[in-house]
Every structure is written in C-alpha cells, then in structure tokens.
Amino acid sequence: MGKEILWSEILTFKRSRYQEFDNGLFRLTNLKNLQVLFMKTNNELKQFILGIPKAELHVHIEGTLEPELAFAIADRNNLSLPFNSPEQLRKAYNFNNLQSFLNLYYVASRVLQREKDFYDLAMAYLTKAHLETVRHAEIFLDPQTHTQRGVPFETIIGGISKATIDAEKEFGISTKLIMCFLRDLSAESAMETLTQALTFKEWIIGIGLDSSELGNPPERFKNVFDRAHQEGFLTVAHAGEEGPPEYIWQALEALKVSRIDHGVRCIEDPELVEKLKSERIPLTVCPISNVKLRLFNTIREHNLKKLLDLGLCVTVNSDDPAYFGGYIFENYVAVTEALGLDKNDLYLVARNSFEASFLTQEEKERYIAKLDKYMSEYRD
Ligand code: ADE
Ligand code: ZN
User: Fold this and answer.
1) Among 14, 121, 196, 380, which residue's Cβ finds the most Cβ atoms within 10 Å?
2) 259-300: per-residue pLDDT in tens?
3) 54 phi and psi, to 5 degrees?
4) Where are the alpha helices (DSSP H) in 172-303?
5) Is the CB of 242 under 6 A from ligand 1?
6) pLDDT tens, 146-169?
7) Residue 319: how many CA atoms within 13 Å on its side-chain side?
8) If you classify domain 45-377 with CATH, what class do you get?
9) Residue nearest atom 1 in ligand 1 by C-alpha distance
10) Which residue is closest in CA terms to ligand 1's atom 10?
11) H or E segment at 224?
12) Angle of helix 270-278 relative to helix 245-253, nearest 10 degrees?
C-alpha cells in the first residue's frame, strides 16, 4: 500500500519542486531522490518498463506545462492566469473532447513569453523524460500559438533549442524539433510560419499539423506541405484522432507525410490498415490522451494491442502529459496493465519507437543495439 502511494506521487512528480535559481531559471530539484524513488518499486514489470530504452515521438512541448510551472512563470512575467492556484487549474482538467482540452491548453500557453520560459519548459520535460529512460525525443512546438501574441519566433526556438543542447550534455538524451501548423488557422498563416522557420532550419527537422481536427481536413495544407518538402523538411500530421480514416488518406496522399500522429481510427478502413502495414508507416499512439479526450471510454477498450497484432508500426507516447496525467512511462504501464502486453510486445513498441524516429539509420541501429542489450541482460 505504502509503495503504491509512493508510485502515484512519483508519477505525477508531486514530490519534485520547481526551484528558482539565482539566474532566474526554474529547475526541477531533488532529481537524485526522484531517481532512487523510481527504482524502489516492487513491481517487476514496471521496473522493466522504466528501464527500457525508448524514444518519444509525440509530445507537444506546450502540453508539458505543469500547473505549478505555469504559475511560477506567470508570476515571473507579472501575468495572471484565470485560476487561483495550480490545484484549481488542475481541477479544470476534465475534458469532453479535443476542443475542450485545446481551449485550456491555449490559455495556459499564454504565460510563455520569454526565451527562459521556453527553456524552463523544455528542460523540465527533458529531465522527466530522462528519468523514464527516454533516450531520444522528437518534440512538437506550436509557433503560431505564440507568434500570434507577439512572441518572436527566435524566442521560442532559442529557448527550446538551448534546453535540448543542455539536456544532451547533462543526460545524453538526443532530440529533434517538429514545428506544427495549427490546422484551425488558415493555410496562408501556415505558409507565413513556414517562411519564418526557414531561418531556423538547423533546429527544425520536421513539419507537423495539429489542433482541432474535425472540419479541418489535411488537404487544405497541401501547398504548404509541398513547399516544406521542397525545403527539405520531413513531415508528419495528426490524423484519425477524432477525424475519419479519410483524413489519414489525405495526410498520406496529399501531404505525403512519413508518420501519422494518433491514427487510431485507421482501424475502420481495412484497405488503409493494409497500406499502413505494407509500407510500414508508423503511428504515434497516445493511449492516455485518447481516453482523457474520450476517443475510448477506458484503456481496456483502446485498440493499441489490436493495431500491434495487425502488424502495424505502433509506438506509445504521451501527447500532453501535464494535462492528461501521464508521461511516457505511465502510458506504457497503462497499456501493459489494461491490454496485457508482455515483454515481447514492449520490446516491439520500444523498437518501433527508434525505427519510426527521424534519426539516421546508423543512429537507429545504435539505439536498437542498446535496446537489445537491455533485453538480453534483463533478469526477471
Ligand atoms: N495539440 C496538442 N495536443 C493535441 C492533440 N492531441 N491533437 C491535436 N492537437 C493537439
Ligand atoms: Zn498530439
């Protein structure tokens, strides 16, 4: 019982504190203690999941903004949030669908104004990811959310990229950044954002598409994705989260993306499933997100295991962990417990995460070799 309480505390990082240092930056403290606590579980499968080397391919940096950090940053910027406390903000996390979540997500994102805000946000996420043995992270950012409010593009990229450099030095975690267009805004706004991004090409590997899916089909963004390809960006798109399989087809055929974010509704279209399988087009699935946004009533009803058994390249990710109450570790645990994944399934999911990443072939092989070593050395 004691151990279980400890686990839930660790998982929500309630024990960690954002401490303000002399240089005005916030960092998670007590890391050593956290790591020790992490290892103190008597649940063997959880230990296995915690330690397995993995990549995270679907996480929105704005979705990692924990209420405590949002309040700390708001304070630092002399801003107020429309909530009295972090607890009150957390109480508002009760969503009916994607839009009800996005409404709150965009409000909280407004506290992010200066380079150090983006730095602190990214560093907090990368610290947590490291503690959960994420060896490589591909992180989404939504520039329009911030540029619309007058925050310069370089402030956003500057803060996030500096955190990725420091995290690589400190933890050895590798990262790539994927800039998403908000699909509820116009294609012209997306094109303008792409033009702004060209100056920061060395920091941005890919282009994605997110925000309200229903009524905003991918084909509206064909021209801007064509241009992104011409400029050498890799591409992904959220599709088949709330939207129909037709949106996945459009993302593949009109936008020519190499990965589908979510994509769980592909199961409604056998021809599409066959295409995803035969071309090994990865799906970045986010199980806890899908339940919190009511795509599935419970994790037990989630189709991740079905998709895996159909032979698709399925990965497990956290999406917006601060809002949905689970980072990557908790997502792996949730599907393992609810859908009965075994160690072979977990190996496959972790292997898929490296295979589906935007790393070079050589880097992928290096990570997969480490994963294989973990498997061969792991003792029950
Ligand atoms: N932006 C942040 N999280 C998202 C999600 N799950 N779907 C679409 N847009 C998002
Ligand atoms: Zn997402």
Assistant:
1) 121
2) 999 999 999 999 999 999 999 999 999 999 999 999 999 999
3) -145, 165
4) 187-197, 222-230, 245-253, 270-278, 287-292
5) no
6) 999 999 999 999 999 999 999 999
7) 29
8) alpha beta
9) 211
10) 211
11) helix 222-230
12) 40
